[in-house]
Amino acid sequence: MGQSGVFVISQSHCFVLGRLVVDELEILTVACAPSHQKQGHGRAVVAKLLDKAASNGGLWGFLEVAPNNNSAISLYNSLGFAQVGLRKGYYDRKGGPSVDALILRKSLF
Which partner from 22, 25, 27, 96 sits 20 to 30 angstroms from 63, CA to CA? Predict the structure, then answer.
């Protein structure tokens, strides 16, 4: 986390971790305590990260999300992300088959 271009934004028991490489932001992790979900805190931290990346030269934001993670997909769609690809079998699941990942992208300019 001490590397250049790595950002952590947190508030109200939620955080987002992202990495800006040249002009591409990769959102690595978004987490919010169950007691603070569905209150706009996750959206707020992701929006702040997108602004931070844009102000540091970011042109694009990317992330992967499981296709059955409806809450996260709804959040990302509300922020302007759109699907641009698919990674087959990206997430390993203990005791079950692997799950694909949707690749989402958003313009930051």
Answer: 96
